[in-house]
Protein backbone atom coordinates (compact mmCIF):
# COMPACT_ATOMS: atom_id res chain seq x y z
CA UNK A 1 0.00 0.00 0.00
CA UNK A 2 1.31 3.54 -0.82
CA UNK A 3 2.09 5.99 1.96
CA UNK A 4 -0.74 8.22 0.79
CA UNK A 5 -3.25 5.38 0.83
CA UNK A 6 -2.04 4.22 4.21
CA UNK A 7 -2.44 7.73 5.56
CA UNK A 8 -6.02 7.90 4.30
CA UNK A 9 -6.83 4.49 5.72
CA UNK A 10 -5.34 5.50 9.04
CA UNK A 11 -7.49 8.60 9.03
CA UNK A 12 -10.48 6.35 8.46
CA UNK A 13 -9.46 4.41 11.56
CA UNK A 14 -8.49 7.37 13.73
CA UNK A 15 -10.88 10.04 12.47
CA UNK A 16 -13.92 8.47 10.89
CA UNK A 17 -13.01 4.89 11.68
CA UNK A 18 -11.35 5.75 14.96
CA UNK A 19 -14.72 6.97 16.13
CA UNK A 20 -15.67 3.32 16.62
CA UNK A 21 -15.03 3.86 20.29
CA UNK A 22 -17.56 6.68 20.12
CA UNK A 23 -19.83 4.56 17.98
CA UNK A 24 -20.00 2.00 20.77
CA UNK A 25 -21.30 4.79 22.96
CA UNK A 26 -23.61 6.08 20.24
CA UNK A 27 -25.74 3.10 19.36
CA UNK A 28 -24.23 0.52 17.02
CA UNK A 29 -26.17 -2.53 15.84
CA UNK A 30 -24.79 -5.67 17.49
CA UNK A 31 -22.89 -3.59 20.06
CA UNK A 32 -23.48 -2.57 23.66
CA UNK A 33 -24.92 0.78 22.59
CA UNK A 34 -27.75 -0.62 20.49
CA UNK A 35 -28.80 -2.78 23.43
CA UNK A 36 -28.88 0.45 25.44
CA UNK A 37 -30.76 2.23 22.66
CA UNK A 38 -33.58 -0.30 22.49
CA UNK A 39 -33.53 -2.33 25.71
CA UNK A 40 -36.12 -0.18 27.51
CA UNK A 41 -38.80 -1.44 25.16
CA UNK A 42 -37.58 -5.00 24.69
CA UNK A 43 -39.20 -7.56 26.98
CA UNK A 44 -36.50 -8.87 29.23
CA UNK A 45 -34.10 -6.43 27.58
CA UNK A 46 -30.51 -6.47 28.57
CA UNK A 47 -27.49 -8.53 27.82
CA UNK A 48 -29.44 -11.68 27.07
CA UNK A 49 -32.12 -10.13 24.89
CA UNK A 50 -30.75 -10.91 21.47
CA UNK A 51 -33.69 -11.83 19.28
CA UNK A 52 -36.01 -8.91 20.11
CA UNK A 53 -33.24 -6.40 19.51
CA UNK A 54 -33.38 -6.36 15.68
CA UNK A 55 -37.17 -6.02 15.86
CA UNK A 56 -36.79 -2.90 18.02
CA UNK A 57 -34.28 -1.45 15.59
CA UNK A 58 -36.73 -2.17 12.77
CA UNK A 59 -39.46 -0.28 14.64
CA UNK A 60 -37.17 2.75 14.79
CA UNK A 61 -36.28 2.35 11.12
CA UNK A 62 -39.98 2.07 10.23
CA UNK A 63 -40.63 5.38 12.01
CA UNK A 64 -37.65 6.96 10.27
CA UNK A 65 -38.91 5.80 6.88
CA UNK A 66 -42.29 7.41 7.60
CA UNK A 67 -40.54 10.70 8.35
CA UNK A 68 -38.48 10.35 5.18
CA UNK A 69 -41.66 9.64 3.20
CA UNK A 70 -43.29 12.79 4.61
CA UNK A 71 -40.36 14.91 3.47
CA UNK A 72 -40.28 13.47 -0.05
CA UNK A 73 -44.00 13.00 -0.67
CA UNK A 74 -45.28 16.42 0.33
CA UNK A 75 -44.34 18.50 -2.72
CA UNK A 76 -45.53 15.80 -5.11
CA UNK A 77 -48.94 15.52 -3.45
CA UNK A 78 -49.36 19.28 -3.18
CA UNK A 79 -48.27 19.83 -6.79
CA UNK A 80 -51.24 17.79 -8.01
CA UNK A 81 -53.62 19.88 -5.90
CA UNK A 82 -52.34 23.27 -7.13
CA UNK A 83 -55.08 24.00 -9.69
CA UNK A 84 -57.77 23.28 -7.09
CA UNK A 85 -56.00 25.43 -4.50
CA UNK A 86 -55.87 28.39 -6.88
CA UNK A 87 -59.54 27.94 -7.73
CA UNK A 88 -60.44 28.09 -4.02
CA UNK A 89 -58.00 30.68 -2.64
CA UNK A 90 -57.19 32.74 -5.74
CA UNK A 91 -53.80 34.41 -6.01
CA UNK A 92 -52.67 32.78 -9.25
CA UNK A 93 -49.85 35.33 -9.60
CA UNK A 94 -48.31 34.03 -6.34
CA UNK A 95 -48.82 30.34 -7.06
CA UNK A 96 -45.11 29.56 -7.60
CA UNK A 97 -44.37 30.77 -4.07
CA UNK A 98 -46.33 27.86 -2.60
CA UNK A 99 -43.50 25.61 -3.77
CA UNK A 100 -40.67 28.17 -3.60
CA UNK A 101 -41.32 29.07 0.07
CA UNK A 102 -41.20 25.39 1.05
CA UNK A 103 -38.05 24.72 -1.00
CA UNK A 104 -36.23 27.79 0.33
CA UNK A 105 -37.02 26.99 3.97
CA UNK A 106 -35.99 23.36 3.53
CA UNK A 107 -32.68 24.14 1.83
CA UNK A 108 -31.73 26.98 4.17
CA UNK A 109 -32.52 25.06 7.37
CA UNK A 110 -30.91 21.74 6.39
CA UNK A 111 -27.35 22.47 7.60
CA UNK A 112 -28.62 24.16 10.77
CA UNK A 113 -30.70 21.12 11.78
CA UNK A 114 -27.66 18.91 11.30
CA UNK A 115 -25.53 21.07 13.60
CA UNK A 116 -28.27 21.34 16.23
CA UNK A 117 -28.47 17.55 16.35
CA UNK A 118 -24.73 17.34 16.97
CA UNK A 119 -24.90 19.98 19.72
CA UNK A 120 -28.07 19.10 21.62
CA UNK A 121 -28.84 15.47 20.85
CA UNK A 122 -30.24 13.80 17.76
CA UNK A 123 -33.56 12.52 19.11
CA UNK A 124 -34.95 15.75 20.60
CA UNK A 125 -33.92 17.85 17.60
CA UNK A 126 -35.42 15.35 15.15
CA UNK A 127 -38.70 15.19 17.05
CA UNK A 128 -38.81 19.00 17.09
CA UNK A 129 -38.47 19.07 13.30
CA UNK A 130 -41.36 16.60 12.97
CA UNK A 131 -43.55 18.73 15.27
CA UNK A 132 -42.78 21.89 13.27
CA UNK A 133 -43.54 20.06 10.02
CA UNK A 134 -46.87 18.83 11.38
CA UNK A 135 -47.84 22.27 12.69
CA UNK A 136 -47.02 23.74 9.28
CA UNK A 137 -49.08 21.01 7.60
CA UNK A 138 -52.09 21.63 9.83
CA UNK A 139 -51.93 25.41 9.36
CA UNK A 140 -51.47 25.03 5.59
CA UNK A 141 -54.64 22.94 5.48
CA UNK A 142 -56.51 25.69 7.34
CA UNK A 143 -55.17 28.58 5.19
CA UNK A 144 -57.83 31.06 4.09
CA UNK A 145 -55.87 32.92 1.42
CA UNK A 146 -52.74 32.50 -0.69
CA UNK A 147 -50.62 34.70 1.59
CA UNK A 148 -51.37 32.52 4.61
CA UNK A 149 -50.69 29.35 2.63
CA UNK A 150 -47.28 30.63 1.49
CA UNK A 151 -46.31 31.56 5.06
CA UNK A 152 -47.45 28.23 6.49
CA UNK A 153 -45.66 26.37 3.70
CA UNK A 154 -42.45 28.13 4.73
CA UNK A 155 -43.01 26.90 8.29
CA UNK A 156 -43.65 23.40 6.96
CA UNK A 157 -40.45 23.58 4.92
CA UNK A 158 -38.52 24.66 8.00
CA UNK A 159 -39.52 21.40 9.67
CA UNK A 160 -38.92 19.38 6.51
CA UNK A 161 -35.31 20.55 6.49
CA UNK A 162 -34.73 18.52 9.64
CA UNK A 163 -36.59 15.39 8.54
CA UNK A 164 -34.18 14.02 5.94
CA UNK A 165 -31.10 15.10 7.88
CA UNK A 166 -32.46 13.58 11.08
CA UNK A 167 -33.24 10.28 9.37
CA UNK A 168 -29.75 9.98 7.87
CA UNK A 169 -27.93 11.07 11.02
CA UNK A 170 -29.89 8.71 13.30
CA UNK A 171 -29.27 5.82 10.94
CA UNK A 172 -25.61 6.84 11.04
CA UNK A 173 -25.74 6.62 14.85
CA UNK A 174 -27.64 3.35 15.02
CA UNK A 175 -26.06 1.30 12.27
CA UNK A 176 -22.34 1.10 11.47
CA UNK A 177 -21.43 1.73 7.82
CA UNK A 178 -20.47 -1.91 7.27
CA UNK A 179 -24.02 -3.02 8.20
CA UNK A 180 -25.91 -0.10 6.68
CA UNK A 181 -26.06 -1.60 3.20
CA UNK A 182 -28.74 -4.02 4.42
CA UNK A 183 -31.09 -1.07 4.79
CA UNK A 184 -30.31 0.77 1.54
CA UNK A 185 -33.23 -0.93 -0.17
CA UNK A 186 -35.61 0.53 2.40
CA UNK A 187 -34.42 4.08 1.73
CA UNK A 188 -34.41 3.65 -2.06
CA UNK A 189 -37.87 2.06 -1.82
CA UNK A 190 -39.25 5.06 0.05
CA UNK A 191 -37.86 7.38 -2.63
CA UNK A 192 -39.37 5.30 -5.43
CA UNK A 193 -42.70 5.08 -3.59
CA UNK A 194 -42.83 8.85 -3.14
CA UNK A 195 -42.15 9.56 -6.80
CA UNK A 196 -44.59 6.95 -8.10
CA UNK A 197 -47.40 7.33 -5.59
CA UNK A 198 -47.17 11.09 -4.99
CA UNK A 199 -49.16 12.29 -8.04
CA UNK A 200 -51.65 9.41 -7.75
CA UNK A 201 -52.26 9.99 -4.04
CA UNK A 202 -52.45 13.75 -4.51
CA UNK A 203 -55.02 13.44 -7.28
CA UNK A 204 -57.14 10.93 -5.34
CA UNK A 205 -57.12 13.00 -2.15
CA UNK A 206 -57.97 16.23 -3.98
CA UNK A 207 -60.81 14.65 -5.97
CA UNK A 208 -62.48 12.85 -3.05
CA UNK A 209 -61.59 14.77 0.13
CA UNK A 210 -60.57 18.24 -1.07
CA UNK A 211 -57.18 19.94 -1.36
CA UNK A 212 -56.88 20.65 2.38
CA UNK A 213 -56.40 16.95 3.01
CA UNK A 214 -53.25 17.11 0.90
CA UNK A 215 -51.80 18.68 4.05
CA UNK A 216 -53.89 16.97 6.72
CA UNK A 217 -52.78 13.54 5.48
CA UNK A 218 -49.37 14.28 7.01
CA UNK A 219 -50.79 14.44 10.54
CA UNK A 220 -51.61 10.77 11.26
CA UNK A 221 -48.39 9.59 9.62
CA UNK A 222 -46.36 12.11 11.58
CA UNK A 223 -48.00 11.17 14.87
CA UNK A 224 -47.16 7.49 14.29
CA UNK A 225 -43.52 8.39 13.59
CA UNK A 226 -43.38 10.62 16.69
CA UNK A 227 -44.86 7.97 18.95
CA UNK A 228 -42.55 5.20 17.73
CA UNK A 229 -39.42 7.35 18.01
CA UNK A 230 -40.42 8.66 21.44
CA UNK A 231 -40.99 5.19 22.88
CA UNK A 232 -38.37 3.03 21.19
CA UNK A 233 -35.41 5.26 20.33
CA UNK A 234 -32.99 6.07 23.17
CA UNK A 235 -29.76 7.71 22.04
CA UNK A 236 -27.05 9.22 24.22
CA UNK A 237 -27.16 13.01 24.36
CA UNK A 238 -24.68 15.61 25.59
CA UNK A 239 -24.75 16.44 29.27
CA UNK A 240 -26.24 19.73 30.41
CA UNK A 241 -22.76 21.03 31.19
CA UNK A 242 -21.50 20.08 27.74
CA UNK A 243 -24.47 21.73 26.07
CA UNK A 244 -24.10 24.95 28.04
CA UNK A 245 -20.42 25.10 27.16
CA UNK A 246 -21.15 24.97 23.42
CA UNK A 247 -22.54 28.04 21.67
CA UNK A 248 -24.46 28.36 18.41
CA UNK A 249 -22.72 30.11 15.53
CA UNK A 250 -25.52 32.60 14.85
CA UNK A 251 -23.55 34.74 12.39
CA UNK A 252 -22.46 31.73 10.36
CA UNK A 253 -26.03 30.37 10.34
CA UNK A 254 -27.37 33.74 9.14
CA UNK A 255 -24.80 34.08 6.36
CA UNK A 256 -25.34 30.51 5.19
CA UNK A 257 -29.11 31.02 5.18
CA UNK A 258 -28.80 34.19 3.10
CA UNK A 259 -26.37 32.52 0.70
CA UNK A 260 -28.50 29.41 0.16
CA UNK A 261 -31.69 31.46 -0.17
CA UNK A 262 -30.15 33.72 -2.81
CA UNK A 263 -28.77 30.78 -4.81
CA UNK A 264 -32.06 28.86 -4.74
CA UNK A 265 -33.94 32.00 -5.84
CA UNK A 266 -31.51 32.47 -8.73
CA UNK A 267 -32.08 28.90 -9.92
CA UNK A 268 -35.85 29.13 -9.32
CA UNK A 269 -36.49 32.53 -10.92
CA UNK A 270 -33.80 32.56 -13.61
CA UNK A 271 -35.33 32.15 -17.05
CA UNK A 272 -38.89 32.02 -15.69
CA UNK A 273 -39.85 34.96 -13.48
CA UNK A 274 -36.86 37.04 -14.65
CA UNK A 275 -34.37 36.86 -17.51
CA UNK A 276 -31.02 35.33 -16.59
CA UNK A 277 -29.26 38.63 -17.29
CA UNK A 278 -31.78 40.80 -15.42
CA UNK A 279 -30.77 43.07 -12.56
CA UNK A 280 -32.75 41.00 -10.04
CA UNK A 281 -30.93 37.76 -10.90
CA UNK A 282 -27.52 39.46 -10.99
CA UNK A 283 -28.13 41.10 -7.60
CA UNK A 284 -29.28 37.83 -6.06
CA UNK A 285 -26.22 36.04 -7.44
CA UNK A 286 -23.92 38.73 -6.04
CA UNK A 287 -25.64 38.57 -2.64
CA UNK A 288 -25.35 34.78 -2.61
CA UNK A 289 -21.65 34.76 -3.48
CA UNK A 290 -20.85 37.53 -0.97
CA UNK A 291 -22.79 35.76 1.81
CA UNK A 292 -21.06 32.42 1.17
CA UNK A 293 -17.60 34.03 1.08
CA UNK A 294 -18.41 35.74 4.38
CA UNK A 295 -19.68 32.42 5.72
CA UNK A 296 -16.39 30.68 4.92
CA UNK A 297 -14.48 33.47 6.66
CA UNK A 298 -16.66 33.24 9.78
CA UNK A 299 -16.48 29.44 9.93
CA UNK A 300 -12.69 29.51 10.20
CA UNK A 301 -13.01 31.51 13.43
CA UNK A 302 -16.20 30.20 15.04
CA UNK A 303 -15.94 28.06 18.19
CA UNK A 304 -18.81 25.82 17.03
CA UNK A 305 -19.12 26.34 13.26
CA UNK A 306 -22.40 25.43 11.59
CA UNK A 307 -20.43 23.59 8.92
CA UNK A 308 -16.97 22.70 10.24
CA UNK A 309 -14.61 23.14 7.32
CA UNK A 310 -12.29 20.43 8.62
CA UNK A 311 -14.72 17.77 7.34
CA UNK A 312 -13.67 18.74 3.80
CA UNK A 313 -10.09 17.73 4.58
CA UNK A 314 -11.25 14.18 4.00
CA UNK A 315 -10.86 13.52 0.30
CA UNK A 316 -13.69 11.01 0.30
CA UNK A 317 -16.13 13.36 2.01
CA UNK A 318 -15.44 16.15 -0.49
CA UNK A 319 -15.73 13.77 -3.44
CA UNK A 320 -19.01 12.32 -2.14
CA UNK A 321 -20.43 15.82 -1.77
CA UNK A 322 -19.51 16.52 -5.40
CA UNK A 323 -20.97 13.21 -6.62
CA UNK A 324 -24.13 13.88 -4.57
CA UNK A 325 -24.46 17.31 -6.21
CA UNK A 326 -24.15 15.79 -9.69
CA UNK A 327 -26.57 12.96 -8.86
CA UNK A 328 -29.15 15.54 -7.72
CA UNK A 329 -28.50 17.58 -10.87
CA UNK A 330 -29.15 14.60 -13.13
CA UNK A 331 -31.95 12.88 -11.22
CA UNK A 332 -34.31 15.81 -10.82
CA UNK A 333 -33.68 16.94 -14.38
CA UNK A 334 -34.71 13.47 -15.53
CA UNK A 335 -37.78 13.48 -13.26
CA UNK A 336 -38.84 16.79 -14.81
CA UNK A 337 -38.27 16.07 -18.51
CA UNK A 338 -39.00 12.37 -18.91
CA UNK A 339 -42.74 12.63 -18.06
CA UNK A 340 -42.97 15.74 -20.26
CA UNK A 341 -41.46 13.87 -23.21
CA UNK A 342 -43.66 10.81 -22.62
CA UNK A 343 -46.83 12.88 -22.41
CA UNK A 344 -46.11 15.29 -25.28
CA UNK A 345 -44.36 12.96 -27.74
CA UNK A 346 -45.47 9.44 -26.81
CA UNK A 347 -49.03 10.34 -25.81
CA UNK A 348 -48.86 8.97 -22.26
CA UNK A 349 -51.51 9.98 -19.71
CA UNK A 350 -50.59 12.77 -17.30
CA UNK A 351 -52.63 11.17 -14.52
CA UNK A 352 -50.11 8.31 -14.34
CA UNK A 353 -47.02 10.52 -14.45
CA UNK A 354 -45.49 8.72 -11.49
CA UNK A 355 -45.86 5.34 -13.19
CA UNK A 356 -44.07 6.70 -16.26
CA UNK A 357 -40.86 6.75 -14.22
CA UNK A 358 -41.24 3.13 -13.11
CA UNK A 359 -38.43 1.70 -15.30
CA UNK A 360 -35.94 4.20 -13.87
CA UNK A 361 -37.12 3.94 -10.27
CA UNK A 362 -37.45 0.14 -10.37
CA UNK A 363 -33.90 -0.25 -11.67
CA UNK A 364 -32.67 2.23 -9.06
CA UNK A 365 -34.35 0.28 -6.25
CA UNK A 366 -33.08 -3.13 -7.40
CA UNK A 367 -29.49 -1.99 -7.95
CA UNK A 368 -29.46 -0.08 -4.66
CA UNK A 369 -30.46 -3.24 -2.79
CA UNK A 370 -27.77 -5.31 -4.53
CA UNK A 371 -25.14 -2.62 -3.92
CA UNK A 372 -26.09 -2.49 -0.25
CA UNK A 373 -25.82 -6.25 0.20
CA UNK A 374 -22.48 -6.44 -1.59
CA UNK A 375 -21.11 -3.55 0.45
CA UNK A 376 -22.24 -5.20 3.69
CA UNK A 377 -20.78 -8.55 2.71
CA UNK A 378 -17.43 -7.34 1.38
CA UNK A 379 -16.90 -3.95 2.99
CA UNK A 380 -15.88 -2.67 -0.44
CA UNK A 381 -17.62 0.21 -2.17
CA UNK A 382 -15.38 2.04 -4.66
CA UNK A 383 -16.68 -0.03 -7.56
CA UNK A 384 -20.18 1.39 -7.14
CA UNK A 385 -19.36 5.09 -7.69
CA UNK A 386 -17.29 4.06 -10.72
CA UNK A 387 -19.90 1.76 -12.26
CA UNK A 388 -22.74 4.08 -11.26
CA UNK A 389 -21.11 7.08 -12.96
CA UNK A 390 -20.50 5.10 -16.16
CA UNK A 391 -24.11 3.87 -16.23
CA UNK A 392 -25.41 7.36 -15.51
CA UNK A 393 -23.40 8.81 -18.41
CA UNK A 394 -24.55 5.99 -20.71
CA UNK A 395 -28.20 6.32 -19.65
CA UNK A 396 -28.25 10.08 -20.21
CA UNK A 397 -26.54 9.73 -23.59
CA UNK A 398 -29.08 7.09 -24.64
CA UNK A 399 -31.98 9.28 -23.49
CA UNK A 400 -30.52 12.12 -25.55
CA UNK A 401 -31.03 9.96 -28.66
CA UNK A 402 -34.83 9.80 -28.25
CA UNK A 403 -36.90 11.38 -31.00
CA UNK A 404 -40.53 11.44 -32.12
CA UNK A 405 -40.33 7.81 -33.26
CA UNK A 406 -38.86 6.28 -30.10
CA UNK A 407 -41.11 3.59 -28.62
CA UNK A 408 -42.04 3.37 -24.94
CA UNK A 409 -40.16 0.09 -24.61
CA UNK A 410 -36.97 1.65 -25.95
CA UNK A 411 -37.24 4.73 -23.74
CA UNK A 412 -38.00 2.43 -20.80
CA UNK A 413 -34.74 0.53 -21.39
CA UNK A 414 -32.81 3.81 -21.56
CA UNK A 415 -34.46 4.95 -18.32
CA UNK A 416 -33.53 1.67 -16.63
CA UNK A 417 -29.86 2.21 -17.51
CA UNK A 418 -29.98 5.66 -15.90
CA UNK A 419 -31.84 4.26 -12.89
CA UNK A 420 -29.22 1.53 -12.44
CA UNK A 421 -26.51 4.17 -12.37
CA UNK A 422 -28.34 6.23 -9.76
CA UNK A 423 -28.99 3.08 -7.73
CA UNK A 424 -25.23 2.63 -7.43
CA UNK A 425 -24.81 6.21 -6.23
CA UNK A 426 -27.82 7.40 -4.22
CA UNK A 427 -27.10 5.72 -0.88
CA UNK A 428 -23.39 5.02 -1.32
CA UNK A 429 -22.63 8.76 -1.33
CA UNK A 430 -24.20 9.20 2.12
CA UNK A 431 -22.62 5.99 3.42
CA UNK A 432 -19.07 6.94 2.45
CA UNK A 433 -19.54 10.57 3.56
CA UNK A 434 -20.63 9.46 7.04
CA UNK A 435 -17.80 6.94 7.20
CA UNK A 436 -15.33 9.76 6.49
CA UNK A 437 -16.06 11.88 9.59
CA UNK A 438 -15.96 11.46 13.34
CA UNK A 439 -19.18 10.55 15.14
CA UNK A 440 -19.39 14.04 16.67
CA UNK A 441 -19.75 15.45 13.13
CA UNK A 442 -22.35 12.92 11.95
CA UNK A 443 -25.11 15.54 11.83
CA UNK A 444 -23.21 18.14 9.83
CA UNK A 445 -21.87 15.44 7.49
CA UNK A 446 -25.41 14.22 6.83
CA UNK A 447 -26.77 17.74 6.36
CA UNK A 448 -23.92 18.82 4.08
CA UNK A 449 -24.36 15.78 1.84
CA UNK A 450 -28.14 16.33 1.76
CA UNK A 451 -27.64 20.02 0.98
CA UNK A 452 -25.25 19.16 -1.86
CA UNK A 453 -27.92 16.97 -3.45
CA UNK A 454 -30.60 19.64 -2.92
CA UNK A 455 -28.51 22.36 -4.51
CA UNK A 456 -27.61 19.99 -7.34
CA UNK A 457 -31.30 19.42 -8.04
CA UNK A 458 -31.94 23.18 -8.07
CA UNK A 459 -29.13 23.81 -10.54
CA UNK A 460 -30.11 20.79 -12.64
CA UNK A 461 -33.72 21.88 -13.02
CA UNK A 462 -32.67 25.48 -13.73
CA UNK A 463 -29.87 24.85 -16.22
CA UNK A 464 -31.41 21.89 -18.03
CA UNK A 465 -34.74 23.71 -17.99
CA UNK A 466 -33.27 26.85 -19.53
CA UNK A 467 -31.62 24.82 -22.29
CA UNK A 468 -34.83 22.86 -22.90
CA UNK A 469 -37.01 25.99 -23.10
CA UNK A 470 -34.60 27.77 -25.43
CA UNK A 471 -34.39 24.79 -27.77
CA UNK A 472 -38.18 24.27 -27.86
CA UNK A 473 -38.83 27.92 -28.65
CA UNK A 474 -36.19 27.98 -31.41
CA UNK A 475 -37.52 24.81 -33.06
CA UNK A 476 -41.13 26.00 -32.84
CA UNK A 477 -40.16 29.27 -34.51
CA UNK A 478 -38.35 27.34 -37.27
CA UNK A 479 -41.08 24.76 -37.93
CA UNK A 480 -44.30 26.62 -37.16
CA UNK A 481 -43.36 30.22 -37.82
CA UNK A 482 -45.29 32.97 -36.04
CA UNK A 483 -47.83 30.49 -34.65
CA UNK A 484 -45.05 28.42 -33.11
CA UNK A 485 -43.51 31.45 -31.44
CA UNK A 486 -46.90 32.53 -30.12
CA UNK A 487 -47.69 29.08 -28.72
CA UNK A 488 -44.50 28.92 -26.64
CA UNK A 489 -43.96 32.59 -25.79
CA UNK A 490 -45.33 32.11 -22.25
CA UNK A 491 -44.03 28.61 -21.57
CA UNK A 492 -42.24 25.90 -23.52
CA UNK A 493 -44.10 23.24 -21.50
CA UNK A 494 -47.69 22.69 -22.64
CA UNK A 495 -50.22 20.56 -20.80
CA UNK A 496 -52.38 17.96 -22.54
CA UNK A 497 -55.37 20.29 -22.90
CA UNK A 498 -53.30 23.04 -24.56
CA UNK A 499 -51.60 20.52 -26.84
CA UNK A 500 -54.92 19.05 -27.98
CA UNK A 501 -56.16 22.49 -29.08
CA UNK A 502 -53.25 23.05 -31.46
CA UNK A 503 -53.65 22.53 -35.21
CA UNK A 504 -52.06 19.28 -36.40
CA UNK A 505 -48.99 20.98 -38.01
CA UNK A 506 -48.32 23.00 -34.85
CA UNK A 507 -48.81 19.92 -32.66
CA UNK A 508 -46.34 17.90 -34.72
CA UNK A 509 -43.89 20.79 -34.62
CA UNK A 510 -44.22 20.93 -30.84
CA UNK A 511 -43.59 17.20 -30.50
CA UNK A 512 -40.44 17.54 -32.58
CA UNK A 513 -39.42 20.58 -30.52
CA UNK A 514 -39.87 18.67 -27.24
CA UNK A 515 -37.74 15.78 -28.50
CA UNK A 516 -35.08 18.30 -29.55
CA UNK A 517 -35.27 20.00 -26.16
CA UNK A 518 -34.91 16.75 -24.24
CA UNK A 519 -32.00 15.79 -26.51
CA UNK A 520 -30.15 18.98 -25.54
CA UNK A 521 -31.03 18.67 -21.83
CA UNK A 522 -29.95 15.04 -21.50
CA UNK A 523 -26.81 15.60 -23.56
CA UNK A 524 -25.83 18.36 -21.14
CA UNK A 525 -26.60 15.99 -18.25
CA UNK A 526 -24.29 13.34 -19.68
CA UNK A 527 -21.46 15.88 -19.94
CA UNK A 528 -21.98 16.97 -16.33
CA UNK A 529 -22.09 13.33 -15.22
CA UNK A 530 -18.53 12.88 -16.51
CA UNK A 531 -17.46 14.96 -13.50
CA UNK A 532 -18.94 12.28 -11.23
CA UNK A 533 -16.82 9.65 -12.98
CA UNK A 534 -13.68 11.75 -12.55
CA UNK A 535 -14.49 12.21 -8.86
CA UNK A 536 -15.16 8.48 -8.43
CA UNK A 537 -11.71 7.63 -9.81
CA UNK A 538 -10.08 9.50 -6.94
CA UNK A 539 -12.19 7.90 -4.17
CA UNK A 540 -10.03 5.91 -1.73
CA UNK A 541 -11.48 2.71 -0.37
CA UNK A 542 -11.09 3.37 3.35
CA UNK A 543 -12.45 0.32 5.21
CA UNK A 544 -15.97 0.80 6.54
CA UNK A 545 -16.50 0.90 10.27
CA UNK A 546 -18.11 -2.29 11.50
CA UNK A 547 -19.75 -3.51 14.67
CA UNK A 548 -16.80 -5.65 15.62
CA UNK A 549 -14.16 -2.97 16.03
CA UNK A 550 -11.99 -0.51 14.11
CA UNK A 551 -10.86 -1.38 10.61
CA UNK A 552 -7.31 -2.44 10.08
CA UNK A 553 -5.22 0.22 8.41
CA UNK A 554 -4.35 -0.89 4.95
CA UNK A 555 -7.18 -3.43 4.75
UniProtKB/TrEMBL annotation:
Name of the protein described by the UniProt record: MDR family MFS transporter
CDD domains reported in the protein's UniProt record: MFS_Azr1_MDR_like (cd17502)
Transmembrane segments: 59-82, 94-113, 125-144, 150-171, 183-201, 213-236, 248-269, 275-298, 319-341, 353-371, 383-400, 412-433, 521-539
Any matching Pfam family: MFS_1
Main location: membrane
Membrane topology, as annotated: Multi-pass membrane protein
Domain of life assignment: Bacteria
PROSITE patterns reported for this sequence: MFS (PS50850)
NCBIfam families, per database record: efflux_EmrB
Residue ranges of domain Major facilitator superfamily (MFS) profile in the record: 60-544
Subcellular location(s) per record: Cell membrane
Keyword annotations: Cell membrane, Membrane, Transmembrane, Transmembrane helix, Transport
Amino acid sequence: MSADSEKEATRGADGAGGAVGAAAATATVGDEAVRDAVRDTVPGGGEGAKEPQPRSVRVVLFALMIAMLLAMLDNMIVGTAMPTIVGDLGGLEHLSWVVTAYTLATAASTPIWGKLGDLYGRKSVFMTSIVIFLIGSALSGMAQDMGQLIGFRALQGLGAGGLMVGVMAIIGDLIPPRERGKYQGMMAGVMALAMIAGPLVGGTITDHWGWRWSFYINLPLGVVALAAISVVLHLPKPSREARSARSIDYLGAALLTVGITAIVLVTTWGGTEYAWGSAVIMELAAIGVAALVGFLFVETRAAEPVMPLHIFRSRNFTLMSLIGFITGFVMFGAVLFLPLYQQSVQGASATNSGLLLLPMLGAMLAVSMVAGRVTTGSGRYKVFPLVGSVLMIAGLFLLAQMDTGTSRVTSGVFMAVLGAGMGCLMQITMLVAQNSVEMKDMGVASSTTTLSRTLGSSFGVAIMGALFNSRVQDVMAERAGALGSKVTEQSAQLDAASLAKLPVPAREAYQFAVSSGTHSAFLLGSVVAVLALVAAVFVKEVPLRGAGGPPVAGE
